[in-house]
UniProtKB/TrEMBL annotation:
Signal peptide boundaries: none
Protein's recorded name: Glycosyl transferase family 1 domain-containing protein
Species the sequence originates in: Candidatus Yanofskybacteria bacterium RIFCSPLOWO2_01_FULL_44_22
Gene Ontology MF terms: glycosyltransferase activity
Domain Glycosyl transferase family: 217-310
Amino acid sequence: MKKIAFVVGVFPAVSETWMINQVAGALDRGFDVDIYSFERQDEKNVSDVYRKYKMSERTRYIGMPENKIVRIALALPKIIRLLLVSPGTLFKSLNVGEYGRNALSLKFLFWSEAFAGKKYDLIHLHDGVIAARFLTIRDIAGIKGKLLTSFYGQDVSRRVKENPHIYDRLKKTDSEFIVMSDYMRKRVVDMGFDEKRVHTVSIFGIDVDAHPFKERTISPGETFEIAAMGRFVEKKGFDDILRALAIVKQKANRKFHFSFIGGGELDQKLRKMTTDLDLDDVVSYKGYMKIEDAMKYLMGMHLYLQPSKMASDGDQE
């Protein structure tokens, strides 16, 4: 049986159902899958697929605890395991001369211990920063396997703006790369990646057959229902939706109602903006939903909006 490792920043994430679907798809096709995540997120509102496939049993969390006492307590069994399984990994992870504070803090011990002695046919690295981290993990743990890196919006926008050299080492690896559009592919190639190893996969982790078309009709006097779903971050453009709705409220003859599904760092700002624009009577915030519940809710909408824009820090889709 072929073995695949998924290395991700956060798992499971309610806003990244496509990641869960990728794991499920690989399992359905007969692959053995392990998941390595730097952070754990609350499983509330996570897709039912996560539980159906018992993905928690396949997941190892490799992030370093901030609390020093907890860190030391959790580090001890890792040290003992590595002494028995892979002493070389232990000594490399603690090599202060080569890795400085990252070794002294035990960060690289936590990152690398789970990979010691593992072999994979494919290691799928989800986002550029995770891929850059994994190169150090590979150096320390000596893990073998072909690399596949998926780039996402901020990987080729904000992160490169903040650090133009962030992918210098990644460009020199034997990894293949996946991007979501030809536009993103051009940006990645322009950064110096080998165009022969950058592939556009426009839809991944989404079962389009699970979202059947439904013809929308509206009766005289019926409220026109509109919705948007996503993380409340600047690049999603949800503030622009509110400004547009304020214009619609002034000019439209038909009653309408708008639903936001999701949440995030701009939650309070968007709610205040809703009040300031006198939209409280036509806008509601539904919070996060399991994808199954969200899809049922959206089937009752007449219109779905999904704007996008470049954030002030350069982040974009």
